[in-house]
Amino acid sequence: MKLKLDENISRHLKPILQKLNHDVMTAADEGLLSQPDPIIAAVCKEERRILLTLDVEFADLRKYPPGCFPGIILFRPESYGPLAVNHFIENFVANTNLEEFRNCIVVVDATRIRIRRPPSDDQ
């Protein structure tokens, strides 16, 4: 799975997620630090990468509607200490089929996963 780590997620997760067989790039890898969210989203769309982020703005369905992006996974861990965040994300990615979240907006917290899927063609 092609993933992009937003600038608010540790670059130290990159090799860990690569060992889980993901193609991972970071915002820093591509000189995207301090770029506005729409720029980050546009790059993810162009590269067909699911964005992993802590930025709640990416959960705004008006700005980032499901189906318009390869996928956005917003993490809301109980603790925002760097090691706790890394462990939370690593554990989630290691135990989840991320393919299920393609084109979705997903919010992951300690007790649940909320998924907004693209509208189906049946509606």
Brief descriptors of the model:
123 residues; 21% strand; alpha/beta
The percentage helix is 25-40%
The secondary structure category is alpha/beta
Shape: globular
Give the N-terminus to C-terminus distance in angstroms.
Answer: 29 Å
What would the average pLDDT be, to the nearest integer?
93
Multimeric state of these chains?
single chain
Determine the strand fraction and express it as a percent band: 15-25%
For the biggest sheet, the summary is:
6 strands, mixed
Q: Detail the poorly predicted runs.
A: none
Query: SSE order, as H and E?
Result: EHEHEEHEE
β-strand number: 6
Radius of gyration from CA coordinates: 13 Å
Specify the number of helices. 3
Please tell me about this protein's structure.
This protein is 25% helix and 21% strand. The protein has 123 residues and is α/β, with parallel strands linked by helices. A 6-stranded mixed β-sheet has the order 2-1-3-4-5-6, with helices on both faces. Strand 1, helix 1 and strand 2 (23-26) form a beta-alpha-beta unit. The protein is globular and about 35 Å long.
Compile the SSE list and pairings.
Blueprint: E1 2-5, H1 13-19, E2 23-26, H2 37-47, E3 50-53, E4 72-76, H3 82-94, E5 105-109, E6 113-116
Parallel strand pairs: 1-2, 1-3, 3-4, 4-5
Antiparallel strand pairs: 5-6
Short account of what is shown:
The chain has 123 residues and is an alpha/beta fold. Helix content is 25%, strand content 21%. The chain has a 6-stranded mixed sheet, with helices on both faces.
